[in-house]
Design a protein that fits this description.
By secondary structure, the chain is mainly alpha-helical. It has one domain. Helix content is about 70%, strand content about 0%. The chain has a two-stranded antiparallel ribbon. The chain is globular, with a radius of gyration of 22 Å. It starts with 6 loop residues before the first helix and ends in an 11-residue tail after the last helix. About 55% of the residues are buried.
Length: about 475
């Protein structure tokens, strides 16, 4: 076996190399330009870096094509390409949205741009890795970058508290994951994804190592995906972090964790033992969607509402994965990520660096800012699964696939998902009711000096068009 990478190996990870290279270049460039102008050149460099990474991602599908690289440590497949596309799109939209709002808080530091690029590269290594060590390294790259990005608002006690909570709990969960990798290696003698999970079928005491290892590994992944009971950090971190950063976490960060769950269960061996793990994760998914929706019912702060909503949506996706609906789960994940970006973009706009956006605060929003109210209603109705918006179709495709199974447990998950969708409809509809059916003007809606932001308006308009008609041309079959 040669340990010297070939040209195909390097081309296979070219999107990650581009992102890391531009990030390192940004760290140097910031010292070569005047302080008052450092934001714009770094922004341009970062946007060009992400666009170049997108082109490289498209290029590797044909040359060198799908397959295993670096001695089967990196895997390029349609699934990993689509997951990487989600991260890059989320990163690009964050770059288009975040700078004006970070400037309002005086937290647009030059380090934000390389941190975002490093975070994207970590996400891509996380889901493109075919070796448990590569997966863990990707997780730590993205986690360390997110810790710093959340804590960049050094004058905000809430942001610093969020960063500390996320750091401490994230480090703790990483320890579980690393210990799980050690046990998987002990049970199989390899850290290769297929080989490590094949240890579940070994005879004798070795299989206990593999079972314990996979359980600990899934604990670490469940923390990043904010599944119950590993969700406690989510509402505090979502609320305390700056809203554009929260949007990036809720879209790309969530997608990377749930994408890893899809990959793991695509490699869990079929049979009775594999079904046990699917029942375990399905049970966690059912509890997550129920707990997230019930607690979200009483939330007034929109960021906390979306935090608990994200717990329930993670439950829907994992339930689909447990029932074998991986393709539909990926489609759900793609649409949900864009919905989160649009929702947090509008919340950032309404905050204007000084307001806390609450349900009562947006009362009569349609009377003061009709276009903003319309966009907010489209987004939250899509979250609720209101037809014909894309949120309806994502749930329909997922539930249809779950309904194809005759297994009793899958039917229980299907019933739970439908019942929880009804619960969620109540608190999502509150946003439209407050915006259009209340006469008194809320504190946020009553702000008349909201600036005109053409870039943000055009971006939200495009996203709303996608939420309204995207299902016509973009369906699960398009992901193959």
């Amino acid at each position: 076996m040669s340990y010297t990478p070939s040209s195909n190996d390097l081309i296979a990870i070219s999107p990650m190399l581009i992102l890391c290279g531009i990030a390192l270049l940004s760290l140097v460039v910031q010292f070569l330009i005047p302080k008052e102008e450092e934001g714009k050149p770094l922004w341009i460099l970062s946007v060009l870096g992400i666009l170049a990474a997108m082109y490289a991602l498209y290029h590797i599908t044909s040359s060198p094509g799908y397959g295993k690289f670096f001695g089967s440590q990196i895997s390029i497949s349609p699934l990993t390409v689509w997951l990487s596309a989600i991260y890059l799109i989320a990163g690009l939209i964050t770059l288009l949205i975040a700078p004006p709002f970070l400037s309002q808080h005086k937290t647009l530091f030059p380090e934000f741009f390389p941190l975002l690029l490093f975070c994207l590269s970590g996400m891509m290594f996380l889901t493109s890795g075919y070796d448990l060590i590569v997966i863990f390294v990707g997780l730590e790259i993205l986690s360390l970058a997110l810790y710093v990005m959340i804590g960049m608002a050094r004058t905000s006690v809430a942001a610093l508290e969020s960063a500390m909570k996320y750091f401490l709990l994230g480090s703790f969960s990483s320890g579980f994951m690393l210990l799980g990798i050690a046990f998987l290696y002990g049970g199989s003698g390899t850290t290769n994804l297929d080989g490590a999970l094949r240890g579940l079928f070994l005879k004798g005491y070795e299989t206990n190592f593999s079972k314990l290892g996979l359980g600990l590994f899934l604990v670490g992944v469940s923390f990043k995906a904010a599944l119950v009971p590993f969700h406690s950090w989510t509402p505090d971190v979502y609320e305390g972090a700056q809203t554009p950063i929260t949007g990036f976490m809720a879209s790309a960060g969530k997608a990377s964790a749930l994408g890893l769950v899809i990959i793991i269960f695509n490699h869990v061996p079929v049979g009775e033992i594999g079904n046990v793990w699917k029942i375990l994760m399905g049970s966690i998914a059912l509890i997550s969607m129920t707990w997230g929706n019930i607690v979200a019912l009483k939330q007034e702060n929109l960021k906390r509402m979306l935090a608990y909503s994200s717990i329930s949506h993670a439950g829907y996706i994992v339930a689909g994965i447990a029932c074998g609906a991986s393709l539909e789960a990926l489609y759900y994940l793609f649409s949900y990520s864009l919905l989160n970006l649009a929702a947090f973009a509008i919340i950032s706009y309404l905050e204007q660096g000084k307001h806390e956006v609450t349900v009562n605060g947006i009362s009569h929003l349609s009377g003061e800012h009709p276009l903003t109210a319309l966009a907010l209603s489209v987004i939250f109705l899509s979250f609720a699964g209101f037809p014909p918006l894309i949120g309806f179709w994502t749930k329909l495709f997922l539930l249809q696939k779950m309904a194809e199974s005759d297994l009793f447990f899958n039917r229980v998950l299907l019933f739970g998902a439908v019942a929880n969708s009804c619960i969620a409809f109540y608190y999502y509809m509150k946003i439209t009711i407050q915006s259009y059916m209340k006469q008194e003007t809320g504190t946020v809606a009553g702000v008349r000096d909201l600036p005109t932001m053409p870039t943000l308006g055009f971006l939200v308009f495009l996203l709303c068009v996608f939420f309204t008609a995207g299902w016509l041309f973009f369906q699960p079959g398009a992901l193959l």
